[in-house]
Design brief:
By secondary structure, the chain is an alpha/beta fold. Helix content is about 40%, strand content about 10%.
Length: about 290
């Protein structure tokens, strides 16, 4: 899993992570800024490293609290990737709900990431900030999004964006958020950090997305570009708006079964569900004795 928010968004993340280790599940843990200070984030990551060592890769999401002077901090965290913004504006630039690109601080931050060979995540970017990231970054990815041609949501990727990412050999995590998968989906009231502006009508909630929708987005990319640049970026714990039949890792078999019914062979299924992300992690850092990815 290319993007899991359990570390910052779950009440009992330690117990959940122990279960992951027991079941040999190793998602990338995204440290989402939300309302946390830089000191709180550092303390959280330090505590996690003390308890779990290098059992999980760490990513940083909404990095506006970081500056050029945080060189040593990045060396300590060793993030697999950095997502510069969330949906709105921060100190580095503008996210998917905006129509402006990166700020000077954002461009300087990318220069530092390039020097450290850290991947820059295009998730949560808008078209202008996406183009800034693509033009400036040595290594680009998209950790959790879907296909805009199938679902017109500003968090999703247009075909021209998919093409640019594939040309850069970027890894793309297909996201399990219902409103990114299916346009007619009605939103759950508890989504988006406590915002209660969405309807919670029970009849509307019956239209929740499912694994069939997730497969459509995966297959869209596979049919155009092959399977080697696709993985899953669930956004587990970052949303309650999940497919009815894919709400945890135990449900992953539902996705595997549907891939096989679609005609995907074992190599393709393993590539999407495990090997593409595993290989990306191994390329990104020294993993000698680092992970038990199975």
């Amino acid at each position: 899993d290319f993007h899991n928010d359990v570390l910052t968004e779950a009440e009992d993340s330690e117990t959940i992570l122990k279960t992951y280790i027991k079941n040999k599940v190793h998602p990338v843990l995204a440290v989402f800024r939300n309302r946390l200070s830089k000191e709180q984030i550092l303390n959280l990551i330090s505590s996690h490293k003390d308890k779990f060592g290098n059992a999980f890769s760490i990513a940083l999401e909404d990095c506006g609290y970081l500056t050029e002077s945080d060189d040593d901090l990045l060396d300590f965290i060793k993030p697999l990737y950095c997502t510069l913004t969330w949906n709105g504006e921060n100190e580095l630039g503008y996210g998917s709900d905006c129509d402006r690109g990166l700020k000077e601080n954002g461009k300087k931050f990318i220069t530092m990431l390039n020097h450290k060979k850290i991947s820059v995540d295009t998730a949560h970017s808008n078209c202008k900030s996406f183009c800034d990231i693509i033009s400036m970054s040595d290594i680009v990815i998209n950790s959790h999004a879907c296909v805009r041609n199938l679902c017109d949501n500003p968090r999703n990727l247009y075909d021209w964006q998919l093409k640019l990412l594939i040309e850069r050999n970027a890894l793309i995590g297909i996201c399990a958020v219902g409103r990114f998968l299916r346009e007619e989906k009605f939103y759950c009231a508890k989504d988006y950090a406590g915002c209660n502006s969405f309807g919670d009508d029970k009849a509307a909630l019956s239209k929740k997305a499912d694994c069939d929708d997730l497969i459509k987005h995966i297959d869209y990319i596979v049919q155009k570009y092959g399977c080697d640049n696709v993985c899953i970026g669930t956004d587990f714990y970052g949303t309650e708006d999940l497919p009815e039949d894919f709400r945890n890792y135990e449900n992953a078999l539902n996705l595997v079964e549907k891939m096989k019914k679609l005609g995907y062979n074992d190599r393709v299924v393993k590539a999407i569900m495990r090997d593409n992300l595993k290989n990306f992690i191994h390329r990104s850092k020294d993993t000698d004795g680092h992970f038990d990815l199975q």
